[in-house]
Amino acid sequence: MSVQKPSIPQGTRDFGPAVVARRNYIFGVIRRVFEKFGYAPLETPTMENLSVLTGKYGEEGDQLLFKVLNSGDFLTKKNAAVTAEDLEAGSRKVLPKIAEKGLRYDLTVPFARYVVMNRGTLTFPFKRYQIQPVWRADRPQRGRYREFYQCDADVVGTDSLLCEAEIVLMMSEVLNTLGLTEHTIKINHRRVLGTFYQALGGEGTEVDLFTAIDKLDKIGQDGVTRELLERGFSEASVARLFELLSVQGSFAEKLQQLQSAFAAAQVPTEADGSYKGLQELGQVQQLLQDFGFTHFDHLEFDPTLARGLSYYTGCIFEIKINNVNMGSVSGGGRYDNLTGAFGLPGVSGVGFSFGVDRLYDCLEELNLFPEAVATTTRCLLASFDLENSRQLLPILRQLREAGVAAELYPDEAKLGKQFKYADAKGIPYVLLQGPEEQAAGQFKLKELSTGQEQLLGWNAVLDALTK
Amino acid sequence: MSVQKPSIPQGTRDFGPAVVARRNYIFGVIRRVFEKFGYAPLETPTMENLSVLTGKYGEEGDQLLFKVLNSGDFLTKKNAAVTAEDLEAGSRKVLPKIAEKGLRYDLTVPFARYVVMNRGTLTFPFKRYQIQPVWRADRPQRGRYREFYQCDADVVGTDSLLCEAEIVLMMSEVLNTLGLTEHTIKINHRRVLGTFYQALGGEGTEVDLFTAIDKLDKIGQDGVTRELLERGFSEASVARLFELLSVQGSFAEKLQQLQSAFAAAQVPTEADGSYKGLQELGQVQQLLQDFGFTHFDHLEFDPTLARGLSYYTGCIFEIKINNVNMGSVSGGGRYDNLTGAFGLPGVSGVGFSFGVDRLYDCLEELNLFPEAVATTTRCLLASFDLENSRQLLPILRQLREAGVAAELYPDEAKLGKQFKYADAKGIPYVLLQGPEEQAAGQFKLKELSTGQEQLLGWNAVLDALTK
Predict the structure, then answer these.
(1) Nearest residue of chain B to residue A90 (CA atoms)
(2) ipTM confidence
(3) A343 touches chain B (CB under 8 A)
(4) Scanning A3, A121, A217, A345, which has the fewest C-beta atoms within 10 Å of its C-beta?
């Protein structure tokens, strides 16, 4: 076995103790909010059959799936031996013969697969959350990884707008609990976008319109204009679009203005004279009011929000942190046909997802991680020699029995080295008991951050370490 | 996109809400004990480079690694295009050209890789724990999965036997906290096995002897005898071996008997007249006594314990649950050269691992899961109609503000259906407030397990749900 310099794959990361502790803090906040709202945990396997994954994320997504090689003699499986002609035809021809499994690409498709496989035993509406890593063979770059965690909450089997309102509540509670108070929860409705298309009079295609609007953040009004003109929209239509998109005022005022504008453009309404997208947004707002939601200043109806070309059919959501320069930290929406690809049509659901890496970066930039999160060991017992170590063992046991994370430096070493160890590990307290202190029935407790040293009896030590 | 009946890969599992909650309970107990002993969390990537994994688990292990196909056009990578000759030569020849990464096979090799990559910045002794899944392309069978979690704790950079003693303490605390009080923690020392070999007078090989002893549990004394005779050991030697293995009595008595037996067989001692394996076991026992360890009746010196042919060089551990018919739920030991393969020789460490699936099965068989673990939502608000739902929203908010996991049935439905939902989800309480109760400023709280219904004021409701 030759000696090698080890490395980890591009785009993947080791998380050392301090980072895991901080990530677990974020996961814990999210998990507690999800559970308080009645969402229950689900975990699905890392590997899914490629037949489940392929075709669900578009052509580009299929390329970005990590595929797992069949085990054993993968070239010569019965019914699927790789031939010289296959090799000639290239990777696409060979792939299905040598790989049947892939790594989870998101948490939504495995969730849909789970719902369909267990539809006979699940209780609907089914509310689940899922906090697991996903993998994408994307080109790694700053802030983009090939392995990263998603935190999803979805409810399927109901089209009640209460679910949308509760998503806003959950988003708000997670952000405020983390201290990310400077945020904007943006909300829109897929059918508002559809009504824009109708209001423009039928030029171009809906897909072209949504794709262009989705880029507004990145390429600005000029870029979107250019793109729409290229795609066959008239200058008058584009001008009309930006007039519609520029509605101002409160949530309710914007809804009202668009209602009037759509009516003026003679876009057909529902039987009751309303536009369904606007109407549902109004209902969500009303439910939040009934709830006693107090953060309306952080909720914005943003008619330019498009959330890509994904499967959403109703309300869509996105969160921006206002005082950090970063993309959205969360997004989601309602979909009417999540499980259709697996043979179970007509199951409506709504859900959203937090990106943990971005939340982490925001908390770090704003210095919002609580200090207590950083370390696990609270007290190091330092010893003068092996005999002293032996005497400290019952002390160590009693500290742990009191719930204090504690350790004894395991080797015979100078006190300076032991203090350095505590300092490097971020252990806040060092406890000593030399012959003098022992004779007096006391301990020396040193707080490393202040340098303060105290001579204390056992009960006072326990008090200091458990408070 | 054609409709398909979805499935998951062989040997993998979905974990629904009830199972996740129970697994998280086990993980939580283990994590808290690890942290109380000063072990800090580490997480490594799911994929490792095959150069890191290959050759670390023996020939068979290499076969059981899941390999990840290179992304993109994997057949024609520069410097590694697959040729017709490669195809002819077979899978082994093609593999290194199309796969550079594999899935984590255990937590030990990634830990060693991490230590070597970060040796400049880590503080030694480095105590880490790691709770993550691993993957093995084993033939799936009852109780053996292709994806399963391991919970490891290791300390490297010290050869202090305090670490061995603390492993016994951690094992004992985890098992007792889980309620698995009927257990045996078996301990042995690799050098005791080595001394057996010397005592037999140099027939056969050490590897053959250890391999045979390791099977004693499975094939019994007759099987081991047959195997050793086949491998060139004499009948006298085998008889002598079983005489040595059959020592009886307390921990200390067994140590004493073997010391005498080895001396009688004229096996060379250390300079101080001791046998190092026996001596270290004695020291571990002494440290546990100093600690005030009270469960010596569960600790057994088992000279037949061999723990396979792995990399252990010092003490070895294994846990059996006595009242469940199942293999060991935990094992570990000391190794002197964990990081040698990565160019960092001489780093001594000791660690152990819990198998969560087996612990889970034991708790289930013995009915030891606490009831409170089973559900997350504590109270369902049932509503009579949409108007009633709206009135219940502030109640829902206040319950959650008080930390009560609560949900409102989102659709208009008959009460019977809502109660059925609560029952199926294992929600213990249903809260109602019809017009009558509202007029009286009261609520109806029903406990589903007993059927008991109470008319209560708001404070009494909060009391009942938060107690």
Answers:
(1) B75
(2) 0.92
(3) yes
(4) A121
